[in-house]
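Quick start: what a row looks like.
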Amino acid sequence: MIENSSTFLIIDDEENFALTLKRLLTKRGFIAHTAHHLQAACEENRKHQPHYIVLDLSLANENGLSILAQLKTDNAQTKILVLTGYASIATAVHAMKLGATHYLAKPVDIDELLSAFALEPIQSEPALTPQAKTLDQTEWEKIQTTLVKNDFNVSKTAQVLGLHRRTLQRKLKKRPYRLLPTKAAD
């Protein structure tokens, strides 16, 4: 269970969401800090050494996954929950490989967020509600999985999927975020 003296870092470019979450956590007795872009997130992480980090996958023109490994390196004991408005299995797996403890799709309420941190990071059987996927969701999941397997090489992914490169690029542009490969910080 989470102790009320625990510290949170909320990394989200939607300032209203971050401030609302900060207020809700503070009302419950937690210490909470916010950051709205990647550089500030790294600085706040080093400065406060939070127990828990809530990281938005898409931060304006930045990708939250690009700093996930750095956050863990700077603060090995922290538990990181990745939030996204466009969840996919490929991004969830990629986030977990980079060090995330949990992965949730928005919208999320405070109780769900706190429950996610209180759960064990690896469950023998995930508690997923069975829902039929649309063809578009299945296609997007396949594209994301193939992108990850091909180290985000669009040309190679298009070839594997049997698509023209430009067709794949158009499909990738339809989504509001891009999954970019992470590279070590300079």
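That is the whole record. The chain has eight helices and seven strands. The longest helix spans residues 135-149.
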